[in-house]
Design a protein that fits this description.
The complex is a heterodimer of chains A (226) and B (404). Chain A is of the alpha/beta class and 226 residues long. In chain A, 34% of the residues lie in helices and 28% in strands. Chain B is 55% helix and 19% strand. Classes of the chains: A alpha/beta (226), B alpha+beta (404).
């Protein structure tokens, strides 16, 4: 379970102070598929980055089960991201010199898994996301949708507690977007993967359990489970 | 320990993939640049070393031998020359001894005249110590029984292309007759039997006659010489021999070639300073160049670095991958640079040496200096990569990925 308590984030841009998050509190249960929605500049991506520990809030706490992430050092945060969290970026974010398989297995190598183990896991995950025949392709040899599915496979390699996705379909055409969203839905349904994704596409609501709406850095309303 | 190994393994993995699958053009250019930086790092030093070594060799082979024994201060001649020579030959590691009488005289040829330094030598003994005889470019060297013969240094003989033509006899050749006027007014004609060209101004600006001839003109100086030039067995340290000679029963002024080199010594020591300054600046320039290359690389990959951090790759693995890559670039560049220097630059200079007043100068570099420069380049490559990557890793992940 993720528990967010009074989360605030303030950016200083020159002399202007931007309050991106103004005291946000909510909880996410294990196995939920959550969408964070809101207009552009509402603070939804900022919220996801705080949850994914790639940014630090100005104030407030985030608890994974009962572990407060504000107590972690930078090194521990890195290890926490590696071990417990998966993160998917809007812009695919693969390493161009690595093949699909190598991109996927990299976090597992870092975690210290055995070669045979991470290779077989990476292969299996690529098959899960429908890229079993593209394991040795480099990112530039893959379409946008395929690259995003490689990124999904990478985010899952260390069996994370939570998968975060920041507008994962924003750079994709509608067919690829559907494939990616269906992949998320499949992971959530079949593997009970907790997924938190930022999207501005209301079409995506059909895949998710619950939506957290953000406006001007505050939560407006929450949908109940469908 | 296990975690450290894992960190290194991921760093090495990223390095190898980046090297083998990155932009091949950039990799080749960077390695080529490293090779050029390395060649540049040793090239000027090798020229200066070549210059210094040539000058030193010329002093030993054309002027002084390895040790020069002179009359005690205040005296012009070493008396009991035969006995002194005998004792000098008995000193451990002395191979050859050449007695010389130095004098100055005026030479005249075709209405051209000038005052020059003359040396009365024992030709066969001199040939064992210096290489003057091997550098006779016209005619022959002196023989012990030559009486009316003179060998001119090329700078005295003059002729086309001679550096000090204006002070020379302007074209005296073998077979010509020159008139010599000694300081006591004695005048005698000599036949030019040979011209020596050491390509070394100091050696080529003197003339030679036999001691047989000199002592016949100045019998009162018999058994007296101005100096002994000494050749030692190869690899002998100079100082112990100098000490042994000073301990002989004659008060002699014993000096190594380095002490007698005078002008050459002053310019070689100046060049040592120049060499040091050039080396330091070349290393600084190399460091800055590598820093710029790696900085641009890191800036271009800033987003990728941010993503690697965001997915939990250890910062030390990322740093290792960049530093290792820079070190590999430098290492391959150094190997290519050494190959280029050894098999391209050196043979080229051996074929076409620089023709300078001290002689034909080629490139000379000591292996130890080459290795020190290689280590220096590896060190600056390390720093050139380490500093930018550390700066990039200190950036906030958000700023690295999205440039916010």
């Amino acid at each position: 379970m993720i528990r967010v308590v009074n989360l605030k984030k303030e950016f200083v841009m020159g002399e202007v102070h931007v309050h991106a998050l103004r005291g946000v509190s909510f909880e996410i249960q294990d196995g939920e598929f959550i969408a964070i929605m809101g207009k552009s500049g509402s603070g939804k991506s900022t919220l996801l980055r705080q949850l994914g520990l790639i940014d630090e809030p100005t104030e407030g706490e985030i608890y994974y089960d009962d572990k407060g992430t504000h107590e972690l050092s930078e090194k521990e945060r890195s290890h926490f991201r590696l071990t417990y969290l998966g993160y998917i970026f809007q812009e695919f974010a693969l390493i161009p010199e690595l093949t699909a398989m190598e991109n996927v297995m990299l976090p597992a190598m870092m975690q210290g898994a055995q070669k045979e183990e991470y290779e077989s896991r990476a292969k299996k995950l690529l098959e899960t996301v429908g890229l079993g025949d593209r394991v040795h392709h480099r990112p530039r040899q893959l379409s946008g949708g395929q690259q995003q599915r490689v990124a999904i496979a990478r985010s899952l390699i260390n069996a994370p507690k939570v998968l975060f996705a920041d507008e994962p379909t924003a750079s994709l055409d509608s067919v690829s977007s559907t494939v990616v969203m269906e992949t998320f839905a499949k992971l959530n349904k079949e593997m009970h993967q907790t997924i938190v994704l930022v999207t501005h596409d209301q079409e995506d609501e059909k895949y998710i359990d619950r939506t957290i709406w953000v406006k001007d850095g505050q939560l407006t309303h929450k949908h109940g489970k469908k | 320990m296990k975690q450290a190994l894992r960190t290194w393994w991921v760093g090495i993995f990223l390095t190898l993939r980046s090297l083998t699958r990155g932009n091949i053009g950039t990799t080749v250019m960077t390695i080529f640049l490293m090779a050029m930086i390395f060649v540049n790092l040793i090239f000027l030093s090798s020229i200066i070393n070549g210059l210094v070594e040539t000058a030193n060799r010329q002093v030993i082979n054309g002027l002084t031998g390895e040790i020069l024994v002179e009359a005690p201060s205040g005296e012009t001649y070493i008396s009991q020359a035969a006995e002194v020579e005998k004792q000098l030959r008995l000193v451990h590691n002395v191979q050859q001894v050449s007695p010389r009488v130095n004098f100055s005289a005026e030479l005249e040829y075709n209405n051209e005249q000038g005052s020059y330094r003359g040396v009365a030598i024992h030709p066969s003994k001199e040939s064992e110590v210096t290489v003057l005889a091997q550098n006779v470019v016209e005619g022959r060297f002196l023989r012990p029984d030559d009486t009316n013969a003179i060998v001119l240094g090329v700078q005295i003989a003059g002729g086309e292309g001679v550096m000090m033509e204006v002070y020379s006899l302007k074209g005296a050749q073998v077979g010509d007759t020159v008139t010599m006027r000694y300081t006591n007014g004695l005048e005698k004609k000599y036949e030019v039997v040979g011209i020596v060209n050491m390509n070394f101004v100091q050696a080529d600006n003197q003339f030679f006659i036999s001691q047989e001839e000199y002592y016949s003109l100045f019998p009162q100086l018999k058994d007296q010489v101005s100096e002994f030039a000494i050749k030692l067995t190869q690899g002998t340290s100079l100082q112990p021999v100098v000490d042994d000679m000073k301990n002989l029963d004659f008060s002699l002024n014993v000096r190594t070639w380095k002490d007698t080199a005078g002008l050459v010594k002053s310019f070689t020591s100046s060049f040592d300073i120049v060499n040091f300054i050039v080396s330091i600046s070349a290393i600084i320039v190399a460091g800055i160049t590598i820093f710029i290359i790696m900085y641009v690389d890191v800036v271009n990959r800033r987003r990728q670095i941010g993503i690697l951090r965001a997915i939990g790759i250890a910062e030390s693995s990322i740093a290792i991958s960049y530093v290792l890559r820079a070190l590999l670039y430098a290492f391959i560049g150094i190997v290519i640079g050494m190959y280029l220097f050894t098999f391209v630059v050196t043979p080229t200079f051996v074929r076409m040496p620089l023709q300078l007043p001290v002689g034909d100068v080629s490139v000379v570099i000591d292996n130890s200096i080459m290795y020190i420069r290689a280590l220096a380049l590896l060190l600056v490559s390390f720093l050139g990569a380490y500093i930018p990557i550390q700066r990039a890793l200190r950036m906030h992940i958000i700023d690295a990925i999205w440039g916010e």
